[in-house]
Amino acid sequence: MFRLVGFICVCAALTPYFASAMTAEQKQKIHEHFETIGMKCMKDHHITEADITDLRAKKVPSGPEAPCFLACVMKDIGVMDGNGLIQKETALELAKKVFEDAEELKMIEEYLHSCAHVNTEPVSDGDKGCDRAIIAMKCMIENASQFGFDL
Ligand SMILES: *[C@@H]1O[C@H](CO)[C@@H](O)[C@H](O)[C@H]1NC(C)=O
C-alpha cells in the first residue's frame, strides 16, 4: 500500500521533493493522508492488480477504471477541480508549504507549467476528469526527467 501511496503523491507532481525534504514523521502523516484517499477512491473505482503494478512502476495504468480512480485521487488532493481541470496553482501552493528553496520551487513551477496544455486537450467525459487525469499523468511521467526529477 505504501508504494501505491507514494505513487499517488506523484499525481500531485510533488513526490520527489516531498520525499527528500521531509522528516520521517512528516512522511508518515502524508502517507496516512494519501492512504485514506487511496482507499476511498479504490472503493469507488475498482482498479486491477495490473493497474497497481503499473502504478508502482510509475507507468500509466490501462485498466477500465484506472482513469476515474486517478481523477478521484486528484480531486481529493485538490489538484483537480470540480470541472475536471488541473489546478496548477493548488499544486504549487502545496509545494510552497514544504519547500522554501526558491530554485526548487521555480523548477516545480516550470514542471507544472510544461504540462499546462493538459487542460486544453479534448476529453470524452467532460467534468468527470477521468480522461484528463490520464493525460496529466502521462505528461508528468514524460516530463519529470526533463526537469531532473527522479520519480
Ligand atoms: C513536456 O514539456 C514540454 C515543454 O517543455 C511540452 O511542450 C510537452 O508537451 C510536454 N510533454 C507532454 C507529454 O505533454
Automatic annotation (TrEMBL):
GO molecular function, one term: odorant binding
Superkingdom assignment: Eukaryota
InterPro entries per the UniProt record, alphabetical: PBP/GOBP, PBP_GOBP_sf
Listed GO CC annotations: extracellular space
SUPFAM superfamilies, A to Z: Insect pheromone/odorant-binding proteins
Signal peptide stretch: 1-21
SMART domains: PhBP
Entry's Gene Ontology BP terms: sensory perception of smell
UniProt entry keywords in alphabetical sequence: Signal
Record-given protein name: Putative odorant binding protein 1
Gene for this chain: OBP1
